[in-house]
């Protein structure tokens, strides 16, 4: 029996590069089972002059099954690149679906299967495919082993007369592509030399055009990764203010507690913490950066006004900020726990506080930071506007200043939308990933993604243009 041929499709920018390492581990297991010559991925080195749609289709046609690796950012990147004719991942999957090749979605890091509002056009049939969850932690070996067993059971030897073996491509395949470095892929076979060489001027003009195209593409990609940058300013800390004379846990929406940075706090019922009513602002983080040598500058990317939430900060960065703020203020600051965040958003009493975030993820359906209405009412929060017809939040595909929308009953702003917020907890006791809550300005408006109980787990070193945090102040013991 011929060995199963497997095509791995993944976005290198999904999970901010972490996907490459995970896919590399999946590739290694597949290679052990099927041989490196039967596992394909990283189709990027398309020969000059080749029709890239046909070229990708040829590569996909060699596979008996396609594995579509989907992480938490996969769908929003797909939406952002919907009008991009060179989105190779979309082209690969559309080619497989059009040819009737089985496509198995592999869900990583808490990702959910995108719905028909995201999978449109040639990808519509992907929404009907049964997904397979792969845990890259303790259960990785077991999950991938089961995946291989299922592939062998259902797809080995299934190539039919309606989908014959494709003709060999005019390329020499690389035995094993390495996902952790610049993708290496088959080079085209040497072509016969043309009989007439172009003039030096023609060559110069062609090189000039190529340099301009590459420069424009890199600039566009850099803008996407950094987030919107309408106008830059130099982030500076604001002058200190006088702290409130009463206890932080006594802060209310009518009278929030204020620290010397001007951060405002209200008590979270049932806890010994007061939570910041806002996501941590650029001006707050600027005070930390000014007082702390060696802070990396990526947090300044996209900065246009001091009351925007700081982004491009990791869980580790947020921990360092809390440590500095505790020392500066003489009080105890930290990230909110997952349960404290749930209490603040209004669902904590419906969840088991002893359960892990993974166990509680998405379990409460139909409840959102703005209530139970769907679709979200106008101005419900700063989300990706294109997901629901007619939805508008006044900040088109960009960050909003903190406090731009109505607060919740406790007086807290932006618990839904604007930026993902780091929490103190790990997503699962066996995982090194930390919890994020709340969705962001770049999340499409989808039922499960925006629910109050939705969580994702991300590595503590992860940072992105839609990720920030808010802090809590601990007062006494309970």
* Count of helical stretches: 10
Question: What is the CATH architecture descriptor of the largest domain?
Answer: Alpha-Beta Complex
Shape: globular
Helix content: 25-40%
For the biggest β-sheet, the strand order reads 2-1-3-4-5
Count the domains: 2
CATH topology of the largest domain: paralog of FGE (formylglycine-generating enzyme)
Binned strand content? 5-15%
- Rounded to an integer in angstroms, the radius of gyration calculated over CA atoms is 25 Å
Give the class-level CATH name of the largest domain.
Alpha Beta
Describe the structure.
This protein has about 475 residues and is α/β, with parallel strands linked by helices. It contains ten helices and 16 strands. It has helices at about 20-35, 50-60, 75-80, 90-100, 140-155, 200-225, 280-290, 315-330, 340-345, 355-360; strands at about 5-10, 40, 65-70, 105, 130-135, 170, 185-190, 255-260, 265, 275, 330-335, 420-425, 435, 455-460, 465-470, 470-475. It has a five-stranded parallel sheet with strand order 2-1-3-4-5, with helices on both faces. A five-stranded antiparallel sheet has the order 8-9-10-16-11. A four-stranded mixed sheet has the order 14-13-12-15. Strand 1, helix 1 and strand 2 form a beta-alpha-beta unit. Helix 2 packs across helix 4 (about 90-100). The longest helix is centred in the middle third of the chain and has 27 residues, at about 200-225. Mean pLDDT is about 80; it is low at about 160-195 and about 225-235.
